[in-house]
Amino acid sequence: MNQVYKRLTECYDSIQERIPFEPKVALVLGSGLGDLADRVEIEGILDYHDIQGFPVSTVQGHKGRFVFTHINGVPVVMMQGRVHYYEGYSMEDVVLPARLMKMMGAKILFLTNAAGGVNFSFKAGDFMMITDQIASFVPSPLIGSNADELGPRFCDMSHVYDLDLQEIIRQTARDLDIDLKEGVYLQLTGPAFETPAEVRMVRALGGDAVGMSTACEAVAANHMGMKICGISCISNLGCGMTDQPLSHTEVAETADRVAPVFRALVTEAITRMGKEC
Ligand code: HPA
């Protein structure tokens, strides 16, 4: 058996009896956006620490647990806290949680993150629906012998972000009167924020937002055939686009400020996805 698949099944086996239900949607909560999981009726919690062989996040303010709930009747597993490549984990570790949620039964992966806006028409506090991504600056999580149990060796990437899910999010934002930007997310390794020259590079390459997560998870989930969608909270403009130096505090403060709008958008979009997909 493929080693990646073997590890995944071992991980899954160690938690199987403790999973209260089969999720339809897997929601990854980004930096500062995790409080959505504190506001739902929690039906089950799995601490990452309690999962055998599971990578555990070290970033301050990142809780590390799966939260199980229903959002207006839709069974959802949320990741409150994710694992980042810059913490020193392998890419296999970083994408293990997303793969595990697929194993639990999730068909849809809803990715969220805090990101730097590099598009001049964006401002801090905006939301950007991810329409496509550039993952070429981080190692692919699919490198190594292919886990045929999960997906094909060479997988199509024409529509990583599902067009139907994009339309649901677009329509939801319109109905809730939320100004939703759209664009391409580019992942860098971090953990340092970009230099002004790197921000210009991201823009020149076609990126609208830059961050340190998400794209690799989408690569692994696309490989497994999940339907994927994503929203970035533009927590700041890229370095050099304003006079201010960047800090993690600013990122967290902006995410906090817009959290209520984010919760409304994500909750309603998931409700509609449950009905329509
Ligand atoms: N760059 C990279 N990652 C980020 C940023 C940024 O400006 N803001 C939030 N996450």
UniProtKB/TrEMBL annotation:
Positions bound to a purine D-ribonucleoside: E194, N236
Positions bound to phosphate: S31, H62, R82, V83, H84, A114, S213
SUPFAM superfamilies per UniProt: Purine and uridine phosphorylases
Keywords, comma-separated and alphabetical: Glycosyltransferase, Transferase
Membrane-spanning parts: none
Gene Ontology molecular functions: purine-nucleoside phosphorylase activity
Top-level taxon of origin: Bacteria
EC number: 2.4.2.1
Pfam families in UniProt: PNP_UDP_1 (PF01048)
Catalysed reaction, written as an equation: a purine 2'-deoxy-D-ribonucleoside + phosphate = a purine nucleobase + 2-deoxy-alpha-D-ribose 1-phosphate
Pathway(s) of this molecule: Purine metabolism; purine nucleoside salvage
Keyword field contains Methyltransferase: no
Record's keyword annotation contains Ligase: no
Residue ranges of domain Nucleoside phosphorylase in the record: 24-270
GO biological process, one term: nucleoside metabolic process
Cellular component, GO, one term: cytoplasm
PANTHER family, sorted: METHYLTHIOADENOSINE/PURINE NUCLEOSIDE PHOSPHORYLASE (PTHR11904), PURINE NUCLEOSIDE PHOSPHORYLASE-RELATED (PTHR11904:SF9)
Cited function: The purine nucleoside phosphorylases catalyze the phosphorolytic breakdown of the N-glycosidic bond in the beta-(deoxy)ribonucleoside molecules, with the formation of the corresponding free purine bases and pentose-1-phosphate. Cleaves guanosine, inosine, 2'-deoxyguanosine and 2'-deoxyinosine.
Family the entry assigns: Belongs to the PNP/MTAP phosphorylase family.
NCBIfam families membership: PNPH, PNPH-PUNA-XAPA, PRK08202.1
Name listed for the protein in its UniProt record: Purine nucleoside phosphorylase
Originating organism: Candidatus Lachnoclostridium stercoravium
